Queue: 4 jobs
Job 1
Amino acid sequence: MTEHPSPSMSIIVQKYGGSSLATADRIRNAARRISATRQRGAHVIVVVSAMGDTTDELLDLARQVSDDPPAREMDLLLSTGETVSAALMAMALGSLGLHSVALTGGQAGIRTDTIYSRARITDVNPQRLRQELDGGAIPIVTGFQGVTDTDDVTTLGRGGSDTSAVALAAAVKAERCEIYTDVEGIYTADPRMVPEARRLGQVSYEEMLELAQLGARVMHPRAVELGELYDMPILVASSFVDAPGTLITRAEHVEVRKNVRGLAHDTDVGKITVTRVPDRPGVAHSIFAPLASAGISVDTIVQNAGLDSHTDISFTVTRGDVARALPLVQSCAHEMEAGGVSSSENLAKVSIVGTGMQSAPGFAARMFGCLSDSGINIEMITTSDIRITCIIERDRVKEALGVLHRAFELDRDA
């Protein structure tokens, strides 16, 4: 007999990433974890990613049949990976005696805008989900996707299943959203780069958003934004071991024991410099407007103080965008009679992050001093209230992270 849970039971949303679903055994393992949560007396909504490298395989397949596949059809193709995962998960839960139903993002009520491959969620109607929960079912929802107002399938971009999970959790007013992956939580630094990196028990939304945007790829930045907007606690934990994980929550709930909470790095950095730019109103707009029109995102921007009515402007883009950006910048530089344009792709970002930095001095000096003592040159610097980022040579990243991790005593459990 199918058990019908009480409507008063709490709701937990669990998302399982591609590595957690890469094989049939891993799908069955995730199903057992879902079953255990259900047996503890909670409603469960499950969000799934595509199995393993399925998305990359579908991309390769598309390129084999078309040099320029249409964006609409590409999104429809890529959405099938999650559909496979959802159907298989429902089957696995059924073999455990649990009633479940696989739903696409559209069937689960996720509506998006019309920007294919990087759509944003505009609305979630949880009516179907609540109906399934009330009937005793465990909804299995395809992550990473939704539908437009005309029912065309869209995808949310890499890591979009995190966003799907948090959006659904907010819509059904879940107790929390749990993100299961192949790591045990959020670490003070990437353990592959810093072996002594330590798992954090808690981290604030603000800190996690900075870490995610700076290269910590455990969480999708948009998912963190939604978590903060709707005050939805997010647990990041491993699907392979029983470990506490890391809870992402509001800063006031986090006991800040260290002013620096973690390090982030990103090796996908290219720099473009325009020298002897005429120092007059409108020149910056002339440089960056064509880049924006071409869909090229600019990160760090540094403009030197004017000298003889001229200045130098340097900025960073992803390495993959350097080749596209250079002709646009060179054309603009020629029109304004600038001195020249140069570029570099052998760069990376290293950052220190922590809300405690807002109220305590000296962090920049300590960071710069550590890098200087190690002979690591700083190409550019950018800051926010809770973050300091340095652009350095890419082949010095691992060394820089190790030095900074020790300098800020991140290996010590407060």
Job 2
Amino acid sequence: MHLLHPDLLPNQQEEQQAFAERILAVGDGRGIEPGSDTIQWPIRSIVPDNSVKTLADTVFPTISDHNAPLPTAAYLADRVILAARNDTVTEINHSILDSMCGKYHIFRSADSIINDGGRDIYTTEYINTIEVANLPHHKLKVKIGVPIILLRNLNPADGMCNGTRLCIVKCGERVIEGEILSGKHSDRRVFIPRIPLALTISADLPFEFLRVQFPLRLTFAMTINKSQGQTLSHIGIVIKEPVFSHGQLYVALSRVTSDANLHLVVPNDDRARQQGRIMNIVYRKVFHG
């Protein structure tokens, strides 16, 4: 949990203590309404019109202002939007990217099926449409100044690990230059190459699959699960679709250091918007054995 800062005024310390206790209650499964798996959260955290666009403008002010300078690494390091589902994250990322000024840089992957016996059953167009959570998109669209996240360990000694967030500085045909946003390697400039990314046979795909692409995704928004271990100053959480796994809401809410900088988009029903009733999935057997 967040420690109280010694320089806070007494009333600010009380507010932060209350925030910390509220988050602990979410993690422990306290305050859940019987038979509904919902808790009550202060409605002041819900953005005024409960829209994702307003949430994006709140978490990333000036990001869509074409007269404003490009966001700095320090600005991006402290801000992110969280959502439970990958499709929601992708939609938010592309929406914010489209609102930014600047030139698009588009990189298309080279995709192939491994050991298909020469049958060529699947067309290239079909293979290009494959979307898997731990793979980059076939069509990677970025702009200078956007935040990205690494999907593979490239050079851990230099801070280039799976889950590292960076800001794009330059784009070349075969390499992207980025600046690491946080951690002991923050401000370090690194170069990211295209690499082969293999996907083995799974329940979703009946074949082995290879994608040669930059191991990156946009990260204005990320999944709640991917955010574990990070602490940021400004957080937006999209929970239009309720969280669906144990402790997911706790992980999302506890990423931020102050409830003043926590902003929510909740399901579009009266109980959620007017009373702050949101889903919290907690399996109490985890605590009691």
Job 3
Amino acid sequence: MKAAYLTAIRELEIRDVPEPRLQEPDDVLLQVETVGVCGSDIHYYRTGRIGDQVVEFPFVLGHEFSGRVVDVGPDAGRVKVGQRVAVDPLAPCGACDQCLSGRMHTCRNQKFLGCPGQTAGCLCEYIVMPASSCFPVGENVSATQAALIEPLAIGVYAQQLGGSTDGKTIVILGSGPIGLCVLLACRAAGDCKVYATDLIDERLAVARKLGANWTGKPTDLDVVAEIAAAEPLGVDLAFECAGEQETLDQGVELLSPGGKFMMVGIPETDRVSFAPARMRRKELTLQNVRRQNECEQLAVDMVSDGRITVDSLATHDFSLHQTKEALDLVDAYGDGVVKAMIHVARS
């Protein structure tokens, strides 16, 4: 089969490698259909690392994908040959203290697709996943929609951690794919007022289409002053989805006393800072958000029954042979890109 290998910083090769085979009774062999380019992929592509997770070249990136079931082991359960599936890229051990307490996403022995030191990614034609990571979708859900289930599940989990959105005022700082997924999840969960910011006009246009009441571009106006004028008592929830010091500071300023700061974005730097006096005087809650923590099935259900429509997130299409072009586009925030989709099965 063919696979896209990151061979150095911003260098990529398409290589021929052996197809994977089933090894465990609950294994599922998938033909990869569509892969979404994630911001974390770009961290590895641009710098070769996220924190202490450092790429050893060559390495296959990618973790947001949909696939078609080609073969299954005897213990695959509900997963059947021929089904299209959305995939949770996490394979937890199921036995550590974190797994046993319902925190699969912080499993101490986890294997996560496209994560250095854990397992290679899905930018390849075939891949083996445990059946527990595979979520069948109906034929009414396209390969692109199924690949978008993974980032949507992160938005759903972030909303759940943030609590009820009904009647709340919310600011989303960074309207990239994850910020937009948070917006979709918050809108689906309750009647809320949403302020959204971003540096890219096209992403703000998508945010308005998906239900943002107000959007602002920090390079054009003082978004803190504008939102504060509309919400003089502050907002209830701030979802930081850009991983930038500027947006971290904005969230602290905009929150009302007793508000909740949801840190969803992944900073590229090793350290960020907060104004402790401001946080203490407001008695703010800081909540980190890690991945989707078993929200995949709920996200599948929400897309399948039409409660959430994810189509607006997919703005650019590429083949496996065009993977470098896709990564370069997202890396440069080019052409108003929201989510670049790599269609492996059509390559």
Job 4
Amino acid sequence: MSDETDALFHDATTALAAGRAGDAIASFEALADRGVTDANVSYDRGLAYATRVRIDAELPGDLGRAAQGFEEARALTLDPKMADDASHALAVVRAEVARRRGRSGDPVELDQGLSLGRTVTHLVSEPAWSVLALAASVALGVALAVRRLATARRVHVAGSIGASIAAAMLLVCAALAVAMRDERLHRREGVIVATSALPADEHGMSRPGASSLPEAALVEIVEMKPGWTRVRWGKVDGWVPAGAVRAVEKP
């Protein structure tokens, strides 16, 4: 950070520690406007919005903005403790949103979960899939060498079976590593930062019977155009006002 951004961060954390949530938010948002992407800044920004809710000075969308800060911190950090803290804070924020929605008679589900494909892909990390693919490649080479050099029929058969299994593992692990890399590079996510966002069609017309997207929900950003953002949340796919969703920055 430059000296000016360091000063902004100091002002923000000082105001947050003193309970001056509004001042802290102003400084944290000034850092965001400068393009500062840092897990600590995002986490503390989430805390600032959550603090404004806690001290009964809440403005519409504060819970969503708190959730966005924690989601962003979780995406940016390499520190397991911060990731756990951000996950816990997210759970608290979304529990409060669910409580409010339940009180007003709206559906309380906020987490659509991962699809089956993404669930399988996220069983381990991208580097782990790459290492497994490398190990399968080595095993395939060994099995092919055994099959080619074996003189005994039993050993030849064992080499063939081993080669088949290793080849299948190589294909699966390599495909999953590529899928995770593609998601990391191209998938954009955001958080709903409005008290509710009613999805519309491409002409901006509300769809009959459509349910509003809940505040603090994590959505996939599919497409953007002036004034509108197309998002996907579970089976819901529609356009919402651009100000109703805030992107989650990634490394």
